[in-house]
Amino acid sequence: MPYQVKPWKLISSVPALEEKWFPVRKDTVELPSGRIVEDYFVWEAPHIVKVIPITKDGKFVVCRQYRHALAKILTQFPAGAVDKGEALEQGARRELQEETGYTCNELVHLGSFAPYATKMTGITDIFLAQNATPNGEPQYDDQEETEVCLMTAAEIWKLIGQKEPHMIDLPAALALAEHYLQSTPQK
Amino acid sequence: MPYQVKPWKLISSVPALEEKWFPVRKDTVELPSGRIVEDYFVWEAPHIVKVIPITKDGKFVVCRQYRHALAKILTQFPAGAVDKGEALEQGARRELQEETGYTCNELVHLGSFAPYATKMTGITDIFLAQNATPNGEPQYDDQEETEVCLMTAAEIWKLIGQKEPHMIDLPAALALAEHYLQSTPQK
């Protein structure tokens, strides 16, 4: 120790749950130790785009939405799955408009992140949307009821500091936005 | 708009994938619109504890580990599932010792976070471990090969800034640690 970590070898892969909204595969893998694991499950989760919208006066546009696995209403930045054949930026603009009714000019890509890289394939690409502007009503479906709020960074950090569960994306995305804004001269 | 978002009603729940390492349930729910959704899948994921270890001279102890769903070696803070009947702090100390060989005195709870609150039940509790000290060899199993590294906050932010996937926990946990350290007088 320390030594270089080695990747696992994928031996085979079969579907374990063939559901459109929740496909799971079962992999047989060979560990670096030589041991074979025959039941390593991976959820083939969707590619997500997340947008951090900031208005001209420096307020963040956030969404309060019901999240069923936690059975709680949580505050988060607008996000959703990329449609088939859709470019990431295009998906980000669509989700921003659908969930908040806001549009923006330039989008800045802040990075690609895995929510749970052990057992989920999905990636979340995070974009910053400066000068976000209201542009009509949100147009979400009935699984995505959204209450749109404007919050300062300090208000969001205070919310995160309350000892109840938040989505891990909330501090991650806010910190990424603040790092970008601090390191980049603003127009 | 804006209006108060309403929770969904759980009508019934049945197992969809009965696997010890990946239990998935299928819920029938009633949306606030009155529409019934009969196939809302939820992965009943484990409760995770994550530790942000900082040495006396301000270096972060991080782990490089292979993450199979992404098929990549990623840098992250030590973490793992809480054992049955184990207190969160106890689990955090155990994971710290097992994955890095470090121990610490006081742990500070920085919050509870959901990696994916739509479709995963799991919560990640994040602890800060100041004055982390080497205390023997790591003792992980062969699914958790770990290369332990010491990095400054600036080095971790630089790594995050590289446009390859990272775990979303990395910027989240680092930002939470920095906020705590900046707002709390250090002993």
Which helices and strands occur, and which strands form pairs?
2 copies of one chain form a homodimer.
Chain A: E1 9-17, E2 24-30, E3 36-43, E4 48-53, E5 60-67, E6 72-76, E7 79-81, H1 88-100, E8 102-103, E9 107-114, E10 124-129, E11 133-134, E12 147-151, H2 153-161, E13 166-167, H3 169-183
Parallel strand pairs in A: 4-10
Antiparallel strand pairs in A: 1-2, 2-3, 4-7, 5-6, 5-12, 8-11, 9-10
- Do you know the CATH architecture of the largest domain in chain A? Alpha-Beta Complex
Q: Give the amount of beta strand of chain A, in percent.
A: 35-45%
Helix content of chain A: 10-25%
Count of all domains of chain A: 2
Structural class of chain A: alpha+beta
Number of strands of chain A: 13
Tags for this entry?
homodimer; 187 residues; alpha+beta; Nucleoside Triphosphate Pyrophosphohydrolase; three-stranded antiparallel sheet; 13 strands; globular
Verbal overview:
The structure is a homodimer of 187-residue chains. In chain A, helix 2 (153-161) packs antiparallel against helix 3 (169-183). Chain A is α+β, with helices and mostly antiparallel strands and 187 residues long. Chain A is 20% helix and 38% strand. In chain A, the strands form 4 sheets. Chain A has a 4-stranded mixed β-sheet. In chain A, strands 1-2-3 form a 3-stranded antiparallel β-sheet, with no helix packed on it. Chain A folds into 2 domains: 9-43; 48-182, Nucleoside Triphosphate Pyrophosphohydrolase (Alpha-Beta Complex). In chain A, strand 5 and strand 6 (72-76) form a beta hairpin. Chain A is globular and about 55 Å long. Chain A has helices at residues 88-100, 153-161, 169-183, and strands spanning 9-17, 24-30, 36-43, 48-53, 60-67, 72-76, 79-81, 102-103, 107-114, 124-129, 133-134, 147-151, 166-167. The first copy, chain A, is built from 3 helices and 13 strands. At the A-B interface, strand 1, strand 2, strand 3, strand 5 and strand 6 of A face strand 1, strand 2, strand 3, strand 5 and strand 6 of B.
